[in-house]
Amino acid sequence: MRAFRIVPVATAAVVLAGCAAGTAPHSAPPGADVDLSGQTVEVAAVWADDEQASFERVLDEFERQTGAEVTYVSGGDELPTVLSTRLVGGAPPDVAIVSQPALVHSMAADGALVPLDAATDALITEQFGPVWKEWGTVEGTLYGFVFKATNKSTVWYDTEQLGEDFVPPADWDAFVDLLRTRSDLGGTPLSVGGADGWTLTDWFENVYLQTAGAQMYDKLAEHEIPWTDDSVRVAMETLGRAFQPQFMPGGRASALQTEFADSVVDVFGDDPKAEIVFEADFVAGVIAESTSATVGRDALFFPFPSIGDTSSVITGGDTVVALTDRPATAALVRFLASSQAAAIWVERGGFISPNREVALEGYPDETTRRIAEDLVNAQNPRFDMSDLMPTSLGATRGDGFWRAMQDYLADPARLPQILSDLEAEATAAYARR
């Protein structure tokens, strides 16, 4: 692998220095079987640090097989702003990888995106489940696909605290009973990172999908039904059964001051305060970075408890889109859509691909394999609702959906007013969309 030199985002962030020798294998991935010598491609995404290093390995292989030179721009949380500025200036990157489908839709509506070509469309149809294609489609035109996905329907627990005979709860009633039993024994079983409002929206989305169903979930995400709908109240009250103050270390006030990473450490750290924490597969990364616990031994997970006869998976992810109509752009997008490209990052860890042709054996451990299998085989997956909403409503710290969930955690008795206020914000946000 080549050495990479880090440059500020404003000057294109990361420049690949040099080009490694080598020839393409006989079974080159789609998009990497063309000669692009002398051509350049610029990619902008959110990833930095270890994620950036892993993605650069993927880009390395594309360069090696095509002769193209790829420049990577790490925009982090400011990527939407970076893209907006570049578009206004008439110099967008060739490829962008964004986390919010709502941003994909708005960019497509503004004419900023180039539809994916027929070959890439066919590849995605062949290797991805239909729902993943739907999330990249705007008004019947395919503009993107999810390259890196996450399973947001996993509940993690400390094996030492719960004991070797622990059996994960079969459904939501059993989950609430588990929390009550552990609380009655003098513990505070559930760690909640309420300072980060997005963790609370993830809780709601899992419960709402199961209590209201997929069609209602889609309608609420598009604001085709109001937040004052009775289905929302039912889901919130169902969630409230788990959000009892006696179940959480320090009660409601402490949960609202606990950030996501700290909620994980509160379960798996050297001085645990709780036994169970809910969040996505990236909990494993926090455990590895911030505790001495070992995922797969000290830290295990079970799927989000089903409610009634329904089970579900909430997912999020990073969507690849094209902003220029160049052969090198199309080739890179098609390469990233392939199972061969995904497998490079899969083997390095910290990555789940929704591509169903990626071999489960390629994942580095049994825990990740199970999480990936649950996601790829999910019968009723839905994308993170907050990422489907206008950013002002679904992804703004201290406002909108995030704040409403924090308000509910703080005082469930205020639910009617909380939902009324959220509905007013949603009406204004979708009107501006």
TrEMBL record:
Keyword Transport: yes
Entry-linked InterPro entries: Bact_solute-bd_prot1, SBP
Leader peptide range in chain numbering: 1-20
Key words, A-Z: Signal, Transport
Gene3D superfamilies tied to this protein: Periplasmic binding protein-like II (3.40.190.10)
UniProt record similarity statement: Belongs to the bacterial solute-binding protein 1 family.
Protein name: Carbohydrate ABC transporter substrate-binding protein
Organism encoding this protein: Pseudonocardia humida
